Amino acid sequence: MSARPRVVLVGPPGSGKSTVAHALAGRWHLAQRDTDTDVEAVAGKPVADIFLEDGEPRFRELEHEAVRVALVEHDGVLALGGGAVLHAATQDALAEYRAGGGVVVFLDVSLKHAAPRVGFNQSRPLLLGNPRARWQALMTERRPVYERVASVVVSTDGITPAQVAERIEHAL
Ligand code: S3P
Question: Which residues fall in the annotated binding site?
Fold first, then answer.
């Protein structure tokens, strides 16, 4: 492992991206960043309000820009929003990041383990209505993309964020 690993975490809602980013950053004494938080800072409102007031296309635009900036600026552990990989230009930016020595980790998770983390609150607009069915549909559609953009796949089912962080470290 290099002295300053640069790692991007991708995966569906409930895969534990932010928690694992926190664990990795603590382990490696690196900064942690989250593109959802960056988008909220730029928009001045929560992700759910951006979806509601401005629509998903506007959110994706802000998200793509947040990822682009973070990949250039951030030298630590970066968690992407679950749908960030859908943007073709983001897929290209991740390929470039990997070519430059960065590692992209897909945190794989089953519905059973994602559901309790996702919960049934209002903060994830794409899962409103029937969260379990929506999550499953979204994962089926996105799995090939997560696998394509990632250099490492780590299954998070049944293990703690600290154990996921350990697995990632071993995979580097
Ligand atoms: C989304 C995931 C969310 C957030 C937004 C859209 C998605 O992030 O970016 O609600 O499309 O999967 P998390 O993956 O952190 O929940």
Answer: 14-19, 36, 60, 82, 124, 142
